[in-house]
Amino acid sequence: MTSNIDEKQAYFLQYYLPHVQVCAELISHYQIHPSEATRLLFQGGNFLYFHGFYHQSLVFHTQALDIRKQVLGPDHLVVAESLTALAMFASNQDNYEYAEQLYQQALDIREKILGPDNPETTRRKYWGLNIPIRSATVSI
Fold first, then answer.
1. What distances in angstroms separate CA 110 from CA 4, 50, 64, 73, 84, one per listed residue?
2. Which of 23, 30, 67, 130, by CA, is between 20 and 30 Å from 122?
3. Residue ending a domain, choose from 60, 84, 102
4. Structural domain that includes position 91
5. How confident is the model at residue 4 (pLDDT cuts 50, 70, 90)?
6. What is the tally of structural domains in the chain?
C-alpha cells in the first residue's frame, strides 16, 4: 500500500505540480484572488513542504497569505491558517523567534473571532506551547 501512495505522489509531482506552478504564476501576474486560488497555493505549499521543496513551499504560502490579507482583511480565520503554516515552516527551519511571532498573530486572530475559550483556540494554544524555544548559549 505504501508503494501505491508513493506512486501517486510521484505522479502528482511529475504531472500536476508543473500546472500548480503555472497557476501560481498566473495568479500573481493577473492578480487573481478568488478563494480557490489561495486554496490551491496553500495546498500546493503543503505538498511541496512535505516533499522537501521548502523554498517553493514558502513562496506559495507567502503568496496565499498576501492574497488572503488583501481580499479578506488581516483578521480572518484563513489568514490565521496561513500564518500557522508559515509558523510551522519557520519553526522547522529553526527560526523560532519568527515562528513565535507568526503563531501569536494567528492565535490573536482566532481569539478575536472565535473567543479565547473556543476548542479550536484552546487546541492552537496547546500547539503553541510545543514550539521549540531558542535555547540560550551557556559558556563554561
1. 38, 25, 18, 14, 11
2. 67
3. 60
4. 74-131
5. low
6. 2
To the nearest whole number, what is the mean pLDDT of the chain? 85
**pLDDT beyond 80 at 73:** yes
Q: Are residues 81 and 41 in the same domain?
A: no
* Pair (56, 81) in one structural domain: no
For residue range 16-43, what is the model confidence (pLDDT) as tens digits? Answer: 888 888 999 999 899 888 889 999 999 9
**59-92: buried (b, 16+ CB within 10 Å) or exposed (e) per residue?**
bbbbbbbebbbeeeeeeeebbbbbbbbbbbbbbe
Residue 131 binned pLDDT confidence (cut-offs 50, 70, 90): low
Is residue 140 assigned to a domain?
no
Three-state helix/strand/coil letters over 90-136: HHHCCCHHHHHHHHHHHHHHHHHHHCCCCHHHHHHHHHHHCCCCCCC
Distance CA 116, CA 127 (A): 15
Asked if residue 1 and residue 54 are part of one domain, the reply reads yes
Both 11 and 56 in one domain: the answer is yes
